[in-house]
Amino acid sequence: AGAGKSYTIADKLFLQGILNPGERQKIVVVRKTLASLRKSTLDIIERRADALHRPFRLDRSSWTAQCGNQTWVFTGMNNREDYQKIKSLTDVNFIWANELTELREDDYRELGLRLRGARSKHPLAFRQMIGDFNPIGKTSWIYERNWQRLPKAAEKIRVTVLDNPWAEPEYISMLKAAAADDKNFYNIYFLGEWGELEGVIFNWDVQPLPTIAFDEIIYGGDFGYSIDEAALVKIYRRADEYWVEELLYEKGLTNPALAVRALALGVTRNDDSYWDSAEPKSIQELCDNGLNAKPSLKGQDSVRASIDFLKAQKIHIVEGSPNLVKEVRSWVWKKDKDGHSLPVPGPGKEHAIKATIYGIYTHAKSGVEAVAFQSDEEVY
Asked: What is each CA distance from 339 to 23, 114, 180, 187, 373, in whole angstroms?
């Protein structure tokens, strides 16, 4: 985690165009859903193009880009339309499979079939697939295919946050501190070693937002600034079933700026939004800037109570919510020295998760006064 994998891959691909200016190149960038790709990797690619002074021109109607002698194609692998787009591709030099653990082995195999027809005088620009991921579990097909079988065609590169000269010291310290709480989390996200996350708290699936009439729509948010990201989620409810959509996940936002962004994302002055009740001044600033911000419900043992409540609900993550997906898939119970799970979440990012808990739990329990309660454990 935080090793700069995406930035490095983007730079490598741009470099191929610089080193081979007389050759036409086609680069395919794929993730499970195009919506997730647009919110994450595409933003990095555009910023790196700007930093490297590359003439990157993106067509958002076709999700393709021209960059000098390079054509970039962006796609998901989540439905029939996506697969038809993949199967129509020819003369591909590079495929970048972002967050490879989201794809199936059949997807990986299909992508490999697209690497045909392209030729280059430069050995490093001749039909190559790159996949990036965090090594969450040895049960993954990736481990079996590319580690146990050890194919000669695959070069395996392990990088950690310590290889990233731009990593924030606070983030490095947070990952290091995980060793005392969850050795497996530490091995995966700090050391970059294969592991297996146990005791995952929520098992929410990812699906498209259904075209149905919802009973109500509310919002949940978590404050952040320099080190932690501010998060905002949109929560759709139909009876006792919820769909959660990530709207914002960003550092560097003051509370007034956060309110402006929320309003621009469709939150109205009449919409209920729930925020950390431990920050009443921040909540007031959101209200002063046009939001109907309310404090989250907290109290003794509210951490476990809110988690238990959400575990009893049917909750889905809406496609195109990459940070919420990443947080949920790595959020596990803390363990004691003997490896037994404790009723306390372990280390890791949880900004979008907190926003979801604030929204669903507090709104459902809205008949109870929201009170901040300080205990030995953090309360949500």
From this structure: 55, 45, 11, 15, 29
